[in-house]
């Protein structure tokens, strides 16, 4: 399906990003991984993904909160594979606090890692996509790009910004073979969410299962986590030719959260 295409997935050494990278590799794409972690563990992950999918899988350790490193990441992918055909902006960061106590440095870090990184990656990858008259840009946003929750001012602001960016890019490339969409998952059981479960269990003095059902999934009517595989399948569909008329969309995959 994606043979001879190259995917760059930021924040892809764990969680949703890794699931997306795996799905794209299985579909035949070359993959550039990016993210944080122990170098030896990342290399083992890269080798395993290449061996199990048959894809050419590389890794670049750019810090996507830095504009120059984002540009270098895109350039390195183009140098390694000849193109960036599929750009998935997935890298994320979270911090929870009432707005009056929200540390300025945490606000800045979230904007740079989420919103600014998406902008700089798109800016760097788009010229090549225009030359080839084909490309898929997918911003892994969140249901928090569509609705708000208290104590997440920086994250909600950055995610809403990503959706605005998605719509703007889609309009700018509407007459080309390039699409730009946002995927908006509800709660997915990732390492990030596991950390939230643990902190909420401690704060509320509740067992893990009650925290999941009564706190974490309280807004998600299905009362089940969205799976990484479900998110990856939606991204894979958006990368295909059957989705060429879907652009500028913010697609929820949230167990009914935004249906309320």
How are the SSEs placed, and which strands pair?
Blueprint: E1 6-9, H1 15-26, E2 30-34, H2 39-53, E3 57-60, H3 67-81, E4 86-89, H4 104-132, E5 135-140, H5 153-172, E6 178-185, H6 191-204, H7 208-216, H8 228-239, E7 250-253
Parallel strand pairs: 1-2, 1-4, 2-3, 4-5, 5-6, 6-7
Helix pairs in contact: 1-8, 3-4, 4-5, 6-7
The CATH fourth-level homologous superfamily of the largest domain: NAD(P)-binding Rossmann-like Domain
* Chain-averaged pLDDT: 96
Poorly predicted tracts of residues: none
**Structure summary, number of beta strands:** 7
Q: Which CATH first-tier class of the largest domain would you pick?
A: Alpha Beta
Order of strands across the biggest sheet? 3-2-1-4-5-6-7
| Series of secondary-structure elements, N-terminal to C-terminal | EHEHEHEHEHEHHHE
Number of domains: 2
Based on CA atoms alone, the radius of gyration comes out at 18 Å
Strand content: 5-15%
How does the major sheet shape up?
Answer: 7 strands, parallel
Overall 3D shape: globular
């Amino acid at each position: 399906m994606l043979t001879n295409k190259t995917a760059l997935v930021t924040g892809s050494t764990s969680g949703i990003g890794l699931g997306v990278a795996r799905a794209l590799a299985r579909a035949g794409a070359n993959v550039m991984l990016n993210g944080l972690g122990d170098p030896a563990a990342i290399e083992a992950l890269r080798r395993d993904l290449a061996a199990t999918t048959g894809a050419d899988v590389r890794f670049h350790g750019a810090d996507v909160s830095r504009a120059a490193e984002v540009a270098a990441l895109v350039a390195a992918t183009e140098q390694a594979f000849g193109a960036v055909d599929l750009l998935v902006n997935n890298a994320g960061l979270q911090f929870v606090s009432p707005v009056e106590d929200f540390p300025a440095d945490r606000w800045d870090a979230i904007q740079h890692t989420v919103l600014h990184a998406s902008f700089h990656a798109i800016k760097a990858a788009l010229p090549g996509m225009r030359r080839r008259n084909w490309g898929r840009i997918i911003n892994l946003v969140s249901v928090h790009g569509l609705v708000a929750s208290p104590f997440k001012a920086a994250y909600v602001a950055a995610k809403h910004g990503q959706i605005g960016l998605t719509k703007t890019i889609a309009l700018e490339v509407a007459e080309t073979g390039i699409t730009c969409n946002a995927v908006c998952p509800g709660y997915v059981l990732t390492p990030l969410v596991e950390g939230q479960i643990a902190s909420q269990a401690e704060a509320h003095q509740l067992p893990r299962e009650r925290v999941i059902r009564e706190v974490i999934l309280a807004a998600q009517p299905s009362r089940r986590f969205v799976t990484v595989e479900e998110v990856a399948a939606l991204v894979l569909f958006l990368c295909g030719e059957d989705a060429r008329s879907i652009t500028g969309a913010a697609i929820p995959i949230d167990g009914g959260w935004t249906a309320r």
